[in-house]
């Protein structure tokens, strides 16, 4: 155990974590040069396309120094705030962390969040500046920011370049020197903590574990302590970075166990794997993730409902941080109400369902949860949680509405504050303390409704700060809300997918925008139809879409005008009859739902 070092790389998004991991794998000879590629640990096609890490990825490296061989277990983590649950699980499996700060951008808001998580986990922190080879690098200025943040000395901060490999060898030596080996356990009984898992069609659930005590081999009877499900280890192994079978996994090591279990819902993150008959209590696991954004997902064709159900179950085995439950809608049929950790998380999950399972989906407007208290009716005095805008009670039935608020930290150049202030007012933010943060930068602390944070706040902040501001947030609690439900009607029919809960202050403005947008993208039909927005018990915005004007007389020439008039009158009556018979319902294409969801 004394030659094992378990560590992770934590940083704000796009600060060079995956590139630094590439160089470490190259220097330690874990991957041959001919097999080397950029972002080698980002195995998902979506990760490579977007240039971001979505899933944490463990890897074992071997390194020799001073005649001594060392095992370095690295976990590369995501940087985006929506995937902070992935980071928190990775930190539970290691003893130390490399805090990476981009020498061109400096300390960002998410850097503070991940640093706090590492400190709470009691990890050893190694501060590192990345991208020092860039002509835009401000090494001395950013070092001052890190010194202020960590209360450390300038010589403690290492300088590396993931692109050229400069300083990476020194960083590996620092990892060996500063990060402590795993602690010796008081028992020799095998116990391990599940920090992640994935599903294989042929081998069932494969759990990623950190061995806390004892050792495990293949063909050993094991048990999930919390799920109380028994199984036999089909294979044990390490990540190199591909799965590599080994004879034994010992205390302090990070690896995987192939369980052979094929039904979902048994393995869970934070459970303890132990030998059958073990009497020790389970290890302290993880807090369950709390979804903050909700959206309903329906298959475009109801024939795909069973496939969607199976796909969500399989995806849950590789991303345990989203939730889903079945629901049905009169307009859209059967689907699922899903909870996500943020807007990017929602986008990634829907994109994965489309790519990995070939599903065409209809996704409703993202929303948050509200707590409502009824003032009259059969539910008088009752309080219930509303997950979907289509179930939000009508105006006049409620005595109180409460919504979640968030604590935000924004780090921005001081010169951009004048652009950001109107944005904070527009999104109902309450400004707290502000302080200088390094060279010409300011840290703003504020509180705001989660509803407003979702209303395109990230994009507007980037625009107002020319891309220089960064933001992190965490849920603060519930507060009273002044909101109403706004419905969109097409041809006098309410479309639940477009319903949303908006602030009473801007309901007219939101209604105009929604109606205008739908008017611009909705295809014309064979009859005239109205697009309307309804809130506060009345229609507050309306636009008319004209019908296709097919000329039934185009084949005629010559003769009396009354011949043409007869045919036009016949067409007019036909359209009227079609609408009266109920054939005037509007078929809304899939891409219209997607365009309405996107800002």
Give a written overview of the molecule.
The model has no long low-confidence stretch (mean pLDDT 84). It is globular and about 105 Å long. It is 26% helix and 33% strand. It contains 14 helices and 31 strands. α7 packs across α8. It is an alpha+beta fold and 599 residues long. It folds into five domains: 175 residues, Rossmann fold (3-Layer(aba) Sandwich), CATH 3.40.50; 85 residues, Elongation Factor Tu (Ef-tu), domain 3 (Beta Barrel), CATH 2.40.30; 71 residues, Alpha-Beta Plaits, CATH 3.30.70; 91 residues, Alpha-Beta Plaits (2-Layer Sandwich); 113 residues, Elongation factor 4, C-terminal domain (Alpha-Beta Plaits), CATH 3.30.70. It has an eight-stranded antiparallel sheet with strand order 11-10-16-7-8-15-12-13. Strands 2-3-1-4-5-6 form a six-stranded mixed sheet, sandwiched between helices.
Approximate strand percentage? 25-35%
CATH class of the largest domain: Alpha Beta
Averaged pLDDT, please?
84
Q: What characteristic shape results from the CA principal axes?
A: globular
Radius of gyration: 29 Å
Our count of domains comes out at 5
- Class by alpha and beta content: alpha+beta
Give the key terms.
599 residues; alpha+beta; Rossmann fold; Elongation Factor Tu (Ef-tu), domain 3; Alpha-Beta Plaits; 5 domains; 8-stranded antiparallel sheet; 6-stranded mixed sheet; 14 helices; 31 strands; 26% helix; globular
Question: Brief overview, please?
Answer:
With about 600 residues, the protein is an alpha+beta fold.
Please write out the topology.
Elements: E1 4-10, H1 17-27, H2 45-50, E2 57-65, E3 68-76, H3 84-92, E4 96-102, H4 109-120, E5 124-130, H5 139-150, E6 158-159, H6 168-178, E7 191-200, E8 204-213, E9 215-217, E10 221-224, E11 229-232, E12 235-239, E13 243-245, E14 248-250, E15 254-258, E16 272-275, E17 293-299, H7 305-316, E18 323-329, E19 333-340, H8 343-357, E20 361-363, E21 370-374, E22 383-386, E23 398-413, H9 417-426, E24 430-436, E25 441-449, H10 450-454, H11 457-464, E26 470-480, E27 483-490, E28 493-494, E29 500-503, H12 507-521, E30 529-535, E31 538-545, H13 561-580, H14 590-597
Parallel strand pairs: 1-3, 1-4, 4-5, 5-6
Antiparallel strand pairs: 2-3, 7-8, 7-16, 8-15, 9-14, 10-11, 10-16, 12-13, 12-15, 17-19, 17-20, 18-19, 21-22, 21-23, 23-25, 23-26, 24-25, 27-28, 27-29, 27-30, 30-31
